[in-house]
Write a structure and sequence with these properties.
Elements: H1 5-23, H2 34-49, H3 72-84, H4 88-113, H5 121-133, H6 136-152, H7 159-182, H8 187-211, H9 220-224, H10 235-250, H11 256-266, H12 272-284, H13 291-297, H14 299-316, H15 321-342, H16 345-349, H17 358-370, E1 374-377, H18 380-390, E2 394-395, H19 407-411, E3 421-424, E4 438-441, H20 446-455, H21 459-469, E5 471-477, E6 483-486, E7 489-492, H22 494-503, E8 505-509, E9 513-517
Parallel strand pairs: 1-2, 1-5
Antiparallel strand pairs: 3-4, 5-9, 6-7, 8-9
Helix pairs in contact: 1-4, 2-3, 2-18, 3-4, 4-5, 5-6, 5-7, 7-12, 8-11, 11-14, 17-18, 20-21
Length: about 525
Amino acid sequence: MILAKRTVYSLLLALVCADLVFRYPLDVPHELGADTTFIHTLATSIAVEGRASWIVHPTSYFGLYALSYPSAIPFYFAAGTILTGIPVEGIMLILGWVTSVVGVLGAFLVARKLRRDDIFALTLLLAIGSLRTHQLRQVALAFVLFIVLAAIHRMGFLVFFVIVAYMFAVPFHKLTQRLRFALYKYERVARYAFVFTTLGSFIGVFYVQFLYPGVGGADVAEQYGSGAFFHGDSFPVLLANMGVSLTGKVGPLFPVALVGLVAYTWRRPKEATDKFVLTTMLLFLPLLSLRDYMGEFLIPLFTILVVIGLVSARRFFPKRGKLVAIGLAVLVIASVGFSWEMKDYWRERYVTDAPIEDGTYDAAVYLRFSTDETIIANEGLGGGQLAAISGRPVLPIGGASQHWTGPQQIAWHFVDPGTVSVRLLEFGNVSFNSDEVYVPVGVRNAEIDWETIFFYREPAAADQQFLRYHIHYVVVLATLPDSFISYGLERPSPYLTTVLPTTSYVVYDNGAYRIWFRG
């Protein structure tokens, strides 16, 4: 169905407005998410020093070198705040809005390339363009985008599978076209054979991760053995937990994707783009075992199948067009309602995804304008938030994750990058769960040093660590005056109970945090 231009523009505008409303920070006073505050600290370092000091090797841009991190977003935040004068928090909000608008328009453009179907965002758009026009320029743009995505997040390397699918699709399409004409007398038999072969391949590749746990980079039993409703390691339990997890991330229409897969496989004639999309989906199936990330990265692929499944419903009920249209409308409206309900799910249930609280923000502002040198906090999540807003170096590094080593050690001058030795991981040990391929050798474990301070009883012993990290301020969470949090466990701190009160004095107290100055 071809709609009038005004209708199309109106619908696109409505979708963009809805997307902006979904992303508007209702009752969210400050930035949220432990990963956000971590990246914020790196962006601040770039803005202050004029360079990313952790970039000491070409692979550092992608977070693959020792003491590095994927650097595209820190560079974006830093450039945005330098050029506009807007604080990093504001640049974050703007990036979210820009991404949402580009996502809507990109999905629409890709859909027009693929017979009104949604596809794999901008990466697939570029690759699909070259499939239709055979222009080398499109391939070059796809490769550039691959580099950019890899610099944004380590999962950006998943785009490699899209490029592999593209390289396979063109010769495969030519081969099937020749077979189609050569076997025109057996077209129906050949079609059934192709459909069942395709579906069999999908089922086989999907099931192999259950048959051989860990083949996709993670053990599916460990990832999905425990869920909201089911527990166990049998195939039905693991499958149910995977379905529930993906439904929570993709939406309640996720089961329709199975209908879409069958319909898309049955559709004929298939163009090169159709085979490209099916190949891409097939390559991504084993990676479903990566529960933490893959649901979000596969949303565009599932969206394709969901939309195809919904559109195909008209073919199953050709004489009940109005009834089908009403049913589809109800499903879509229900999906929108479900999305609105789920948009705050993570921040309301997981403290690591919650926004910075006002008490933490106020303490960070004080640290920003009234202190210098390094700060030590007795809790990682709050410490990461204090580091982001104050711009001061804070132990433990990494925020809530409490990294052993990381780029903040270089950004905050805890480690001289010229003295860092590395070793290359063996190829067999590299997987999608690997944070780096070059690991540091002989670099101090910052997390152990942080714990050591709070376990010390004698001032002289603690002073060695304080001097090493140039620590002058100790920030204590009001609810943990005599202990500290390490990997989710509360541990008693002899330093806080016996040493700190006799060697330091309070310079700030807002009820949420107490800041001690130790000279």
